[in-house]
Design goal:
The structure is a single chain. This protein is of the alpha/beta class. The chain folds into two domains: about 260 residues, ATPase, nucleotide binding domain (Nucleotidyltransferase, domain 5, 2-Layer Sandwich); about 50 residues. Helices cover about 25% and strands about 30% of the residues. It has seven helices and 14 strands. The strands form three sheets. A six-stranded mixed sheet has the order 8-4-1-2-3-14. A hairpin with a 4-residue loop joins strand 2 and strand 3. Helix 5 crosses helix 6.
């Protein structure tokens, strides 16, 4: 456990999404969590995600953002885009502990969208003998490691977005004693996807990335499609966790212009819901050299990276991760 207890400063969280790169560093001043520095940059439209040009852009963007901010240290906790991560849910194989990794691999290898020999797999035991399995290509991990090395940052951990979202939820919206036993559905609407985690406090039980995001929500029928996808997530979870009950729906860092949409989704799913605004849950240190401004409304017409509605939930959760 390495939590920077001496100065109460967390690592720099780096969320490289398919469309936006975000860097954040948080601190704990014993009264609560505060923002030290943050910045974001949109991927140029002519750069393909995962390409050599994308890798060079990511290095330059991270270097620029961390150099211009008031970031402390060079330690980084990062996550890969949801599109680069394969997630599945299986029953725990009945085998000896020393053969468990092989047994899990055997159960999912036919489902992998990549060659099994090229995959790196992590599994998380959940509840009722279920397992959350996460896999990605080794070469993609190597590509991300190279980005941080070239940006002269010390990568302490490459995490995964479900863990980052549960960190944000537990730290900001699950702080009551009763919240530790409550099961919630976290819904995080990004530009081109909606990431869903069903969790009991910090423990992820189910995760899925839905290819419908903020840029698609204004089109006719898309909200209904998203509701159906979320209902499918709930049904799949219920089939594997038969004694579990989801108590509420939480929209993490929902944009201001989507609050009515969030209300429509909750109504159609017939679930109690709340908006979990990560920015409202922290102090912004003064002076704070960051692109975060809670005073800027979504319709102000400023550059996207200057708007308060940028979704910081994953980046915040990465910075809050102590087990590096």
């Amino acid at each position: 456990m390495f939590c920077f207890l001496k100065n109460h400063t967390y690592p720099i969280g780096v969320d490289i999404g398919d469309d936006t790169l975000k860097v954040v560093q948080l601190a704990n001043n014993r009264k609560g969590v505060s923002l030290i520095a943050a910045g974001s940059e949109n991927r140029p439209a002519d750069i393909k995600p995962g390409s050599a040009n994308w890798q060079r852009w990511a290095v330059e963007a991270i270097s620029k953002l961390t150099a211009n901010g008031k970031f402390r240290g060079r330690n980084v906790v990062a996550a890969m885009p949801a599109s680069d991560v394969f997630i599945d849910h299986i029953k725990m194989p009945k085998t000896n502990d020393d053969k468990l990794q092989d047994a899990i691999f055997s159960k999912i290898k036919q489902k992998l969208p990549i060659e099994p020999e090229d995959a790196m797999i992590k599994y998380i035991p959940t509840e009722q003998d279920n397992v959350l399995v996460i896999a990605t290509e080794r070469k993609i991990i190597d590509r991300h490691l190279a980005i941080y090395e070239k940006a002269q940052l010390a990568i302490k951990s490459i995490s995964v977005w479900p863990a980052a979202l549960t960190n944000s939820y537990a730290s900001f919206f699950g702080r009551r004693k009763a919240d530790t036993e409550v099961i919630v559905m976290l819904t995080c609407i990004e530009d081109n996807c909606t990431n869903v985690v069903i969790c009991r406090h910090k423990n992820p039980l189910f995760a899925r990335s839905i290819p419908i995001g903020a840029k698609q929500l204004e089109a006719d029928g898309i909200v209904t499609r998203l509701v159906l996808e979320l209902a499918s997530c709930r049904q799949h979870f219920g089939s594997m966790h038969r004694r579990a009950q989801i108590e509420r729906l939480i929209f993490l860092s929902a944009r201001a212009e989507h609050k009515d949409i969030c209300g429509t989704i909750a109504k159609q799913l017939e679930m109690p819901a709340q908006i979990g605004d990560c920015l409202a849950a922290i102090e912004i240190a003064s002076p704070c050299n960051s692109d975060v401004d809670r005073r800027v409304p979504a319709s102000a017409g400023t550059a996207p990276q200057k708007q308060g509605q940028v979704n910081w939930a994953t980046a915040f959760g990465l910075s809050l991760q102590c087990e590096v």
